[in-house]
């Protein structure tokens, strides 16, 4: 069937920023159905129950499973026929170099599959917001050759995926030294988020339907409940609600955002290859410690 009301979905919506974003979308859009997408049916349905409205509905989605992503898109198509807003929040916070391949699989490859699967459901006026990170900035990369590859005007999503596969292979073969030799910051979370932010740029660049917008957003160093050990003691931690603010704000960005496929942080558009901007951020919020052994 085709829905006459707006349809919004949030991945990883059973907890943390994802849940807060789903709650805010329900409040801000009283005409909308919000799909709470989660890997765990038990936790997803518990989140729906907590949201306490018939406009919130659980839908199964495992970002590490290609079949689950295909089934998600098919379910949305069959039940609603459209998707007006999709917030891609689900992710993996891998801080051990051994997590590199898994981090890329969830944070990058899963989002490539998701973007392709739902593309037919996005009509003019749709927004696709990816929750990324300042660590997904190209300016975080020490390798000039790698930066040049990822900013090349003729880079394609398939070519980007090959770069990401090579990063996973390097980590598997030689750990942090091999990643560093290939030009990466040897932090699996950062590697995967660089891929994600670059993906969003390519999606925005190649989008040929007026009014379909792609944005990457860093919500700030937010205590999501699942990252407490990684961020403990760091300055600049923002409350969950504040982190969700920027994500919800991005679901309303369109032409006023200026550039499709843009990267947003601290409420402003950020050039994700700007070294000075990245250095200024690092001076105030140092990156969590990487586990290399």
UniProtKB/TrEMBL annotation:
This is Uncharacterized protein. SUPFAM superfamilies: NAD(P)-binding Rossmann-fold domains (SSF51735). Gene3D superfamilies: NAD(P)-binding Rossmann-like Domain. Belongs to the short-chain dehydrogenases/reductases (SDR) family. Transmembrane segments: none annotated. GO terms for molecular function: oxidoreductase activity. PANTHER family: CARBONYL REDUCTASE 1-RELATED, CHAIN DEHYDROGENASE FAMILY PROTEIN, PUTATIVE (AFU_ORTHOLOGUE AFUA_3G15350)-RELATED. Keywords: NADP, Oxidoreductase. The lineage of its organism: Eukaryota, Rhodophyta, Bangiophyceae, Bangiales, Bangiaceae. It comes from the Eukaryota.
């Amino acid at each position: 069937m085709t829905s006459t009301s707006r349809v919004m979905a949030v991945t990883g919506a059973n907890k943390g920023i994802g849940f807060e974003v789903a709650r805010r979308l329900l409040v801000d859009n009283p005409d909308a159905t919000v799909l709470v997408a989660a890997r765990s049916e038990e936790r997803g349905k518990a989140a729906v129950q907590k949201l306490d409205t018939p406009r919130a509905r659980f839908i199964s989605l495992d970002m590490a499973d290609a079949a689950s992503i295909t089934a998600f898109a098919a379910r949305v198509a069959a039940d609603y026929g459209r998707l007006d807003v999709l917030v891609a929040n689900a992710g993996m916070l891998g801080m051990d170099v051994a997590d590199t391949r898994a981090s890329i699989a969830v944070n990058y490859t899963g989002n490539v599959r998701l973007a392709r699967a739902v593309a037919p459901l996005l009509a003019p006026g749709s927004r696709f917001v990816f929750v990324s990170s300042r660590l997904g900035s190209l300016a975080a990369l020490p390798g000039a050759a790698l930066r040049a590859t990822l900013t090349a005007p003729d880079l394609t999503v398939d070519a980007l995926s090959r770069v990401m596969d090579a990063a996973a292979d390097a980590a598997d073969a030689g750990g942090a030294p091999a990643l560093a030799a290939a030009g990466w910051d040897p932090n699996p979370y950062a590697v995967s988020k660089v891929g994600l932010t670059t993906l969003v740029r390519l999606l925005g660049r190649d989008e040929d339907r007026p009014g379909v917008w792609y944005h990457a957003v860093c919500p700030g160093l937010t205590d999501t409940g699942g990252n407490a050990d990684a961020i403990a003691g760091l300055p600049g931690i923002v409350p969950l609600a504040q982190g969700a603010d920027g994500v919800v704000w991005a679901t309303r960005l369109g032409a006023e955002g200026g550039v499709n496929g843009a990267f947003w942080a601290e409420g402003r558009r950020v050039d994700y290859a700007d070294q000075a901007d990245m250095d200024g951020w690092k001076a105030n919020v140092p990156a969590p410690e990487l586990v290399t052994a």
